[in-house]
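Structure tokens please, single chain.
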Amino acid sequence: MKKHAFNLAAAALALALSFVSCDAGWSDKYNKNKTNNDGGGAKVGAKNAKPAATNTEVSDASAMQPTMEGASDAPAMQPAMEGGGSGVYVACSDLDNSGRSVRSWLWKSGVAQTLNSAASDTGSVFVYGGDVYVAGTVGTSTSASGSYIESSATLWKNGVPQTLSSPTSAAASVFVSGGDVYVVGAVDPGGGQFATLWKNGSAQTLSSPASAASSVYVSGGNVYVAGWTRGKFGNRNDYRATLWKNGAAQTLSSTESAARSVFVSGNDVYVAGHVNDRATLWKNGVPQTLSSAASRAASVFVSDNDVYVAGWEGSGALGKDPDMRATLWKNGVAQTLGSKESYANSVFVSGGDVYVAGEVGNDQSARATLWKNGSAQTLSNTRSRTRSVYVK
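Here you go.
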């Protein structure tokens, strides 16, 4: 499976969607590659990696930005973002030929607004009051091959960026509660990556290396963070899905796993992720395997006692991208959203409508896609993907 994540040059910091693995998310928002040593979550400081042989040689980050092709059905590009009102918000990124994120943007109900025009990636979007918050990562320096050697976790509020941590770091998810702004991701001060929570810009380390945080949710004064931790051996089988509650860690699985999304409904805590390459949903720490095939669960949302999980599922061994199909599980029952290679990274339910954000195609042909009640809408006519959807 392909990797949609920031890779740290030396140690591959895992954050997003694939979600960073932050597989999110970062958006591994995000780790879709079985051969990747990340558990899934945000990766600090690096390219959205495909095999090195496919990488385009460029001298700097700005050179990686693809040309926007004109089309009558393409969303109009606006240079700045206004405050949030009602609508559908989707956090997106443009890709180069190798699948690296080269521009970050926000789509609002048909209009695309640029967040950063150079090497950058989005993690998630959240709307609170009249303000729009987007968590993501901005590449601050690149190698000759175009890999992001360093990156900075970034929070955009109404289009204005705030650097949360200087290199090397990445941000995967944002949540606003009571006027407080919570962002999670990972920081690598040198020697290993740390799962990190920022509250109003102040950083708190959640776990010692190696670890990463993929998703944050605040309920009843409690702060829940989903992600992963890694044991002393450092191989792929050493990653463990982890849930932090107010900074205290709970390991969700004793085998290879990662947690990508957390949602709280009443007294119940839901976490989406994977165990041994199988999409998994935990409810109050009890796992439910969603698929017997190679699969990932990337996002969870609960509405009217129905539990929705977005991810992807394949018919073959994990690692064969063409087999993967964007999938929505409702109360454990799967609905295939894509008829060809596709990935669902985020789900949101509002007014009885179910919105799923993801992408259709591989890194050379990917198109940012929004499904509403199963009907697909392409958001861009250039190589792109979505990380997160929010409806107000």
